[in-house]
Design brief:
The protein is elongated, with a radius of gyration of 24 Å. It folds into 2 domains: 104 residues; 170 residues, no CATH class. The protein is built from 11 helices and 6 strands. The chain has 279 residues and is α/β, with parallel strands linked by helices.
Length: 279
């Protein structure tokens, strides 16, 4: 990550400045420059958090949210006689922040999130450009919700994602066979499991209602024994509709986020959709 590289470079520069300080060198301008770089990095981390928010595990976003003292240090230039002390505090906080975020991102959660987001975007694009796939989804849309969730699960598996739905605190159901998830098979076939709820809706109102019901149904679920092989921080609620609809904002809970996405089986082009919304 570019931000991590800049943090490492800043820490190295600060160590060099500390060595020079023992030689009674006047480092006021150096401390000022290092503080400016610290401030730039803090801004970069905030931008990264907000841009990547939908894909970030909630645990990572929470780390960003806790950096109040670091932000205060970054935005306020200390008096010359206090610059070294304040800079040191800022660097310690920044390094601790980087270590915590790095550890959280290295547990595979971000990769599972990216895979899932890519798979769903790939599905929507394929429906838009491939007549065969579009016809298959339109047939499923007219048929039943289970037909749509089975097609969706099969597509996600191509991207290394084993999609399942939850019926209770520990019960995970396969979306194709509608049997309990075989964790051995899932572990061999996929990079990880992701909770998904596919809801067919004929209108905006129906979609909103079904998505709320899906969240209530999934609330009781606690992630299973596969631990790191299951996406714990994001649960996907997917509305399958004829045309594109407006989706609710993502719902942030204590330990996870409900991500709302739309699959349109007869999508209109963005320009036509914008014209419709304006009229």
């Amino acid at each position: 990550m570019v931000v991590k590289a800049r943090i490492d470079a800043l820490i190295s520069s600060a160590r060099l400045a500390n060595e020079l300080a023992h030689q009674e060198t006047n480092l006021a301008s150096v401390y000022k420059s290092l503080h400016e770089r610290l401030a730039e990095i803090v801004v970069l981390t905030e931008d990264f958090a907000w841009v990547r928010f939908p894909a970030l595990p909630k645990s990572v976003f929470d780390v960003f949210e806790r950096q109040g003292r670091l932000r205060v240090i970054a935005r306020n230039q200390a008096e010359p006689h206090m610059r070294a002390t304040v800079l040191l505090e800022g660097l310690v906080l920044l390094q601790a922040f980087a270590a915590e975020v790095t550890q959280l991102l290295n547990d595979g959660q971000l990769d599972l999130t990216s895979r899932t987001e890519r798979a769903i975007l790939h599905l929507q694009w394929t429906i838009a450009i491939d007549d065969t796939v579009r016809n298959r989804w339109q047939t499923a849309f007219r048929s039943s919700e289970t037909a749509c969730e089975a097609l969706g699960a099969a597509h996600l598996l191509q991207h290394g994602i084993y999609a399942f739905k939850a019926h209770s605190r520990a019960a995970r159901t396969d979306l194709v066979s509608h049997e309990p998830v075989d964790e051995v098979v899932a572990a061999r076939a996929a990079e990880g499991l992701v909770l998904t709820e596919w809801k067919v809706a004929k209108s905006q109102v129906e979609a909103d209602s079904k998505l709320r019901d899906a969240a209530i149904q999934s609330d009781a679920y606690a992630h299973g024994v596969l631990g790191g092989r299951e996406l714990r921080s994001i649960r996907y609620l997917i509305a399958v509709t004829e045309k594109q609809i407006t989706m609710p904002v993502d719902d942030i809970r204590d330990t996870y986020v409900y991500r709302h996405l739309n699959i349109a089986v007869a999508p209109v082009s963005p320009s036509k959709l914008a014209a419709t919304l304006r009229s």
